[in-house]
Design a protein that fits this description.
Distance between the termini of chain B: 43 Å
Shape of chain A: elongated
Structural class of chain A: alpha+beta
Helix content of chain B: 10-25%
Oligomer: heterotetramer
Strand content of chain A: 15-25%
Mean pLDDT of chain A: 85
Largest sheet of chain B: 6 strands, mixed
Distance between the termini of chain A: 62 Å
Low-confidence stretches of chain B: none
Strand order of the largest sheet of chain B: 26-28-27-33-25-31
Chains: A alpha+beta (196), B alpha/beta (793), C mainly alpha (203), D alpha+beta (261)
Chain lengths: 196, 793, 203, 261
């Protein structure tokens, strides 16, 4: 009996928020206060997003802490299903519910890396150097191998010596930009995960 | 998906075959459970493994990997034989009454028109018999011996329950039981759905397999019906959107890539704008010129003018019969024919077939650019000898690999906005929650800065064929890092004069006055704003059509072919389950897959097809108008139907030194690869939670095989194919049954994917084993049903 | 003045008091764990977490030192015919009517009983205490048995200890002194342990 | 005041493990790596940093191949053995809504609750010397959110609500299963411990062992004996002993040397 926080004790407890909380769960929740632990998402910013894993398309709510003030980098503290979505109604699978571990992950890449021919390691490189080097390589290849006209003299404007893949993990808009990117260069060899 | 996730809850029967939604789409599977709860729906699972979907199913039938066409063909036979098909639907909404030209035939594994020397078909005999105006002739009674119906009936007469059992390895009784449930939906008041995934697409006869499923569903009157359809459960968040935006053979919106023989835009439009095959065919692809010209305007802006064919010449063009698909370009790379390779978030060393060949191909590159969240096996392929050497005995040291590689850190989903298209074709907008870590950047910035850097070099130095590059429109407010909202508005399309956002593809013009990045997405960002970000909860039909939640292509239509859910009078086959009905003046319910103001009798229900009706007989596929059971490229038995033509005669197979195929003598067991619910693809091996749920690679094998080989659960086994090997502990189970096939016992082995030589948890790459054999229509590799040997390591 | 007789050697006394000290701590902290009504002893004995840590240590030290004591005294603790008669007469002994109560040796039968009670309960307490010390690595059956046997043995032991303390501090004047200082008067020895006294005198 | 409960309809569990991970995430547990055990089960048993485990069992019931998946965690018993065994006041509390929650500030790590639990649920962490188990997300429930495992469950296998409602729902589900041909279907709610606030619907309710659930869970008799009769026996001994001594002292007092001859 001494272990039961009964209603009277609850009402007397100064640590407890006031006001009745009878929710859609159909349960009077007032006595269920756990004073020991603050709700970890009580002070978060919520952002609506969509799970990046499979194509069920579950909506998620990303809870971040940190107000983006000058020295504050927001960080994800929790990700949970979005109850508004008719697809998942707040539910998520084992992968989706642990998306925080994907975003906040010490294995994430955080700077551009370069591997020189014959080398056995990555070396950090600045973005500017990387872009300059990559652009030069692309242009050299394109200038050397671009096919304006095929054997029959027909205009084909293609770059057969560069292949490109990707996009299935990215948004429509990026995929659209990818199509401009590859047709700009003349790349035909292009596939995404739907091929596999 | 023709119907979408939420609609699955309307089904009476759910056939899960070639997929495992309980494990791989658990949240989508909730609608299966809802159908069972709400409608007492029956869940039928047909799969090589008694998996977690089977664990909660009403019926489970085991089968041999790669024999799905036999099973489905058997169902078609069963439906016809027992008169279980939906006769009125078949007559109204399919090409069953169409007459096929004289000369069409199937014998000894080949359709008519086979050219043994060229190893391909002349499809002339697969065409409809047409009248003077070019319209197909029909027999509404379906009795003409050359009617599609009669030809189909004859074709599948061979697929008796006994024949199915002999091929698939289940018993004829098991087949009949499953068939009775599945074919019970061939009535107006019942609907059945099919859920499939890579278990159907990863075959050397994949497209035919899905065609068979579509045929079955058409026979049962389930296409267009709520709770019906054939529903592909796609495996990546935006694999649908990525496909919608084109691949090597498609421009955005499934416009075909121009070929070298189509020198001008007119040539292209002539070749790609179909003519109606029936008087009542709406033939919506007849609007191709509007879609294409608007796309060219979006691509080339002011450089696209009527006079220059809207800069059509800038689009790269393959030769008429050339193929630039996955199998082909990696083969070319392997032969040293490719210098540069760019990967935006893909990991071909892990997910492509035949990893030893893949590694070899990448090592021939001059340069490679990989944009990723994590270091992948592809990015670090040059280190494979050190990291995964045991499995790559012939792969070379880094010092011998001259590929210059860049690994660029990209923002992840939470750090970017933009839209993903789910399996239901819903475009769901997401918002960025935080900036990327460290020096990582969003993909659009990486791509744009690279593109602009190349373009600057051309502008400064000149070079070969600068026009396609310089004329490509990149005129965004911030070209170095375009706002995805701005890009999304361009994709939706607008009037060039005045800039009004279009309401839908109906407003597109072929005179250059509109631009549109992808016609099927037109309507996603109108003057009313971002339709993809809508969060409306209402479901007016009560059928799980949420018209105001996000936006669905095309035209916010949630159930494709929904006109077919209604009869000739426009009234629903099932009055209690009708997504669309004609009230005498207009169509009500879902956005009609039909001309909105046309009467029920005006057009055929399948407006995208020149026939105006759905195709049971489809001449577009390369290996025949009717699907036929062909064995996988590597098979434990010769095809019981025609031993001389065992596997798909049109399958794409390579024959280089690293492309070996194995035979049943050396590699007696059938292997399948698949995902587990614990992991997502090759990503979660980097993630702590997935690593905990299943830390170890393993090989699943039947108890009987294990005991014959003296293997106990946990023993390390080695699995070998003609390409390579993997090693790991054995999971010995009753859940994979030995099968009796063509008089012999066939064992199947299950090998989950998910591990690799880089990650928080590591294990062998299963694609060390898989063959470079592909479906000829779609180019998907055969990961289900290849041959291996197994021994205790 | 009476001649003094050595009753307990210094090592005997040291062991006894070490045992007593450990016992006292284990008993008080054990009482805190015994009943929530006794939880007020928890702060006294170091607080919940500390007493959880220290109680088994005290118990273990108790067991080790008790083992030393056992080796030293066990031979002297054999129950003989006189002891049995003593026990039969013990109610009279308790009421200070010692007619018919046989003479005692170095330890009277009551003390011997106490010795055996404490030694046997210590065995149980030690064995079950080890189980309760590391519950996470013990089989469930052992834990289930221990959770009952440990307090059961403690109850038995403490019942004996109550008698022991009462007897040695209040009833038998001089007994405490014997254990603190080590010697008793001849008269005391003769009075309480006549047989032992005679043995000493004979020597 | 209503008692809350969790309903686990095992006939709907697909072993997707979302509940396992939801629990790990919400409680910020440290993830660990496992060794291969010839099973799909995440780990052999519950752990101090793993409070919610789906047990996988390949079996045959009535000739039918089955793969049973059963979520296992604290049952939040009405008559909780852990509380009964716990010596430290306030370390384990039964909230007014029936949740059996741990207040780890008061936990002394004695592990008695582990022994007292009929379901063998609490786990002692060797690192922190505290005991851990499911709290039915009392912090979430307090603000009107479902427990993390229940919210994430995709198949409706898990339901949260008042115990009365869920008892009704469970009975209805069992009846549906019986109508579907599972004659042995029924509800498991541990009458031996006064009912559990975690209810199960089982297709084979007569054979809970097949699911990894104890057949007739009761508080172990040794614990009951200890906390019942033994306590009285002990109290009698202690208080009786002292009172007897007092009585003796008053009546007889100390021995005097002259008593003896």
């Amino acid at each position: 009996m001494g272990n039961t926080i009964d209603r009277r004790q609850f009402l007397q407890s100064s640590a407890v928020r006031a006001g009745a909380v009878v929710t859609a769960l159909g349960v009077d929740l007032r006595p269920a206060i756990a004073a020991a632990r603050e709700l970890k998402i009580s002070r978060t910013t919520q952002t609506n997003s969509v799970c990046p894993y499979c194509a069920v398309g579950c909506s998620v709510i990303i809870h971040t802490l940190g107000d983006k003030a000058r020295n504050v980098h927001p960080t994800v503290v929790h990700i949970e299903g979005d109850p508004d979505s008719p697809v998942n109604r707040g539910t998520l699978c084992s992968k989706g519910i642990s998306l925080k571990e994907f975003v906040v992950n010490d294995r994430r890449l955080t700077r551009p890396l370069h591997r020189a021919p014959g080398s056995s390691e990555w070396k950090p490189v600045s973005w500017d150097d990387a872009f300059a080097k990559m652009a030069r390589l692309i242009k050299d290849t394109r200038d050397r191998t671009f096919v304006e006209k095929d054997e029959q003299g027909r205009e084909v404007n293609r770059l057969p010596s560069v292949a490109m893949i990707g996009g299935c993990t990215d948004t429509n808009e990026i995929n659209y930009l990818l199509s401009k990117f590859r047709f700009g260069l003349g790349i035909l060899s292009y596939e995404n995960q739907s091929r596999l | 998906m023709t119907n979408g996730w939420t609609d699955v809850s309307n089904a009476d029967v759910i056939l899960v075959m070639g997929g495992n939604p309980a494990e791989n789409h658990p949240v989508g599977f909730r609608f299966v459970m809802e159908a069972r709860r709400k409608r007492k729906a029956k869940l039928v699972v047909v799969d090589p493994r008694f998996n977690r979907t089977a664990a909660v199913a009403d019926s489970y039938t085991p089968m041999r990997a790669g024999t799905d066409i036999a099973f489905l063909g058997g169902l078609i036979h069963y439906a016809i034989e027992n008169k279980l098909y939906h006769d009125e639907y078949v007559k109204l909404h399919t090409n069953a009454p169409f007459l096929v030209k004289e000369g069409f035939d199937f014998a000894e594994g080949y359709f008519s028109g086979w050219d043994g020397a060229a190893k391909k078909y002349d499809r002339a005999s697969w065409q409809y018999e047409t009248d003077a105006q070019g319209f197909a002739k029909v027999d509404p009674a379906l009795e003409h011996p050359r009617s599609v119906f009669q030809l189909m009936k004859k074709h599948y007469a061979r697929y008796t329950p006994d024949a199915v059992a002999n091929i698939c390895g289940c018993t004829a009784e098991e087949f009949r039981k499953a068939a009775a449930v599945i074919c019970s939906t061939g009535r107006a008041d019942r609907a059945g759905t099919i859920l499939y995934a890579l278990g159907w697409t990863q075959h050397s006869h994949a497209v035919q397999l899905i065609h068979t499923a579509a045929m079955l569903q058409l026979m049962l009157g389930n296409i267009g019906m709520p709770g019906g359809g054939i529903n592909a459960q796609r495996g990546h968040a935006n694999i649908q959107g990525s496909t919608d935006m084109g691949s090597w053979n498609n421009l955005p919106g499934y416009l075909k890539i121009p070929r070298a023989n189509m020198a001008t835009l007119d040539d292209y439009l002539k070749a790609n704008t179909p003519k109606p095959l029936r008087p009542n065919s709406l033939n919506y692809w007849g609007n191709t010129p509007k879609f294409m010209v608007s796309l060219l305007k979006a691509y080339y802006g002011k450089h696209a003018a009527k006079e220059n064919g809207f800069a059509y010449g800038n689009i790269p063009k393959p030769g008429e019969t050339e193929n630039y698909g996955w199998g082909q370009f990696f083969d070319k790379m392997h032969k040293g024919g490719i210098e540069g390779f760019i990967s935006f978030g893909m990991n071909p060393v892990a997910n492509g077939p035949n990893t030893p060949k893949m590694l070899d191909a990448l090592s021939k590159l001059k340069w490679m650019i990989v944009v990723e969240n994590f270091e992948t096996e592809t990015a670090a392929f040059w280190n494979a000898k050190k990291l995964g050497g045991k499995f790559y005995p012939t792969f070379v040291d880094p010092a011998q690999i001259q590929t210059e590689a860049f690994l660029l850190p990209a923002a992840c989903f939470a750090e970017k906005d933009g839209a993903f298209v789910n399996s239901s074709r819903w475009l769901q907008w997401k918002r960025a929650a935080l900036p990327p870590p460290g020096d990582a950047k969003p993909d659009q910035e990486i791509m744009s800065r690279l593109f602009l850097a190349v373009r600057d070099l051309y502008a400064k130095e000149g070079g070969k064929a600068p026009a396609p590059l310089l004329e490509m429109n990149w005129d965004y407010t911030n070209p170095r890092n375009p706002s995805l909202e701005e890009v999304a508005r361009e994709v939706n399309g607008r009037e060039i004069a005045g800039g009004r956002q279009l309401n839908g593809f109906g407003e597109l013009k072929d005179d250059g006055s509109t631009l549109c990045g992808n016609w099927i997405y037109s309507g996603s960002w109108t003057e009313a704003g971002n339709m993809m970000a809508r969060r409306g909860q209402d479901d007016p039909t009560g059928l799980g059509i949420y018209p105001n939640w996000s936006w669905s292509w095309p035209a916010n239509r949630r159930i494709l072919y929904n006109r077919a859910a209604a009869n000739a009078q426009g009234q629903g086959w099932d009055p209690l389950r009708t997504p669309l009905r004609w009230d005498g003046e207009r169509w009500r319910g879902d956005v009609p897959d039909y001309k909105a103001d046309a009467k029920p009798a005006d057009y055929g229900a399948f407006i995208m097809l020149p026939e105006g009706v759905a195709k049971l007989f489809a001449a577009d596929l390369v290996e025949g108008p009717f699907p036929e059971h062909y064995e996988p490229v590597e098979s434990p038995v010769p095809n019981p139907l025609h031993t001389n033509v065992s596997s798909n005669p049109m399958a794409t197979v390579f024959h280089g030194p690293l492309d070996k195929l194995g035979d049943a003598k050396s590699y007696p067991y059938v292997a399948i690869t698949y995902r587990l619910t614990e992991h997502f693809h090759y990503w979660t091996k980097h993630v702590a939670s997935g690593s905990e749920l299943q830390s170890n690679f393993f090989v699943e094998l039947p108890e009987e095989l294990a005991s014959a080989k003296g293997i106990e659960g946990g023993d390390i086994v080695r699995v070998t194919s003609a390409r390579g090997s993997v090693e790991g502990p054995a999971l010995v189970t009753k859940r994979i049954r030995p099968l009796k096939v063509a008089g012999q016992t066939v064992y199947q082995i299950g090998i989950p994917i998910h591990w690799g030589f880089i990650g928080r948890v590591r294990g062998p790459l299963v694609n060390n084993l898989t063959p470079s054999a592909y479906d000829p229509n779609s180019g998907t590799p055969e990961y289900k049903g290849f041959l291996v040997n197994l021994e205790k390591a | 003045m009476d001649k003094r007789v050595e009753r307990f050697s210094a090592p005997e006394r040291l062991t006894h008091w070490l045992v007593a000290l450990c016992y006292l701590y284990a008993a008080l902290s054990g009482l805190a764990l015994w009943s929530r009504a006794m939880w007020w002893l928890a702060p006294v004995t170091g607080g919940g977490e500390n007493l959880r840590a220290w109680h088994p240590v005290a118990g273990a030290v108790f067991a080790v030192v008790l083992a030393v004591q056992f080796r030293r005294w066990a031979a002297q603790m054999k129950i003989d015919a006189d002891d049995r008669r003593w026990l039969a007469a013990s109610p009279r002994y308790a009421m200070h009517d010692e007619t018919g109560v046989p003479e005692s040796g170095r330890f009277n039968a009551g003390q011997k009983m106490l010795f055996w009670l404490q030694s046997s309960s210590a065995v149980v307490l030690f064995a079950t205490g080890i189980v309760l010390w590391f519950p996470e690595s013990m089989p469930r059956a052992a834990r289930l048995a221990s959770i009952l046997l440990h307090p059961l043995a403690a109850v038995a032991s403490m019942g004996g200890i109550i008698v022991h303390i009462y007897m040695t501090t209040i009833v038998v004047q001089g007994a405490l002194h014997a254990m603190t200082r080590g010697y008793v008067s001849q008269a005391w020895a003769r009075s309480h342990h006549a047989k032992w006294y005679r043995q000493l005198s004979d020597r | 005041m209503q008692t809350v409960a969790k309903l686990i309809d095992t006939s709907l569990c697909i072993g997707c493990k979302a509940c396992e991970v939801a629990c790990q995430q919400w409680n910020d547990q440290e993830y660990t790596l496992g060794t291969f055990q010839n099973t799909y089960q995440t780990m052999p048993d519950l752990a101090p940093n793993f409070w919610n485990l789906i047990k996988f069992r390949e079996t045959e019931i009535g000739g039918a191949q089955s793969w049973l998946m059963t979520k296992y965690q604290c049952m939040h018993c009405a008559d909780a053995g852990c509380i009964k065994a716990c010596p430290s006041p306030g370390a384990i509390v039964q909230l007014g809504n029936g949740i059996v929650d741990f207040n780890r500030d008061n936990c002394i790590g004695c592990g008695y609750c582990i022994t007292g639990c009929p379901f063998d649920v609490p786990r002692l962490s060797p690192k922190t010397k505290k005991v851990y188990k499911c709290s039915l997300c009392s912090d979430r429930v307090a603000v009107g959110l479902e427990p993390a495992c229940i919210k994430t469950c995709p198949t409706n296998c898990l339901t949260f609500g008042s115990r009365t409602d869920l008892q009704f729902l469970a009975a209805k589900r069992a009846e549906e299963l019986r109508a579907d041909g599972f004659a042995g279907a029924g509800v498991y709610d541990g009458p031996g411990v006064g009912g559990t606030n975690v209810l199960y619907v089982l297709k084979h309710a007569g054979r809970p062992e097949e699911y990894g659930l104890p057949k007739d869970p009761t508080i172990p008799w040794t614990v009951s004996l200890w906390k019942g009769p033994l306590k009285w026996l002990g109290n009698t001994v202690f208080i009786g002993g002292i009172l007897t001594a007092l009585f003796h002292f008053v009546k007889f007092g100390p021995k005097e040397e002259h008593h003896r001859g």
